[in-house]
Amino acid sequence: MAEAYGYQSKTQKVSLKTDQTTQANFTLEEMKKGTLKGTVINKTTGEPVTGASVYVVEDACG
């Protein structure tokens, strides 16, 4: 498996031979970026929640 911050991780199978070096090359694709925009709404009243904060949490891939 190859992984780098900001890129999609990639896995590939490799055959290993005794007492030999095996090389595996990976090409990783950059993760898409975007903007999050919206309003937090009170489920009961349907009104906007004043001062609400939204936190975006990264996953293991960035």
From TrEMBL:
This is Uncharacterized protein. The lineage of its organism: Bacteria, Bacillati, Bacillota, Bacilli, Bacillales.
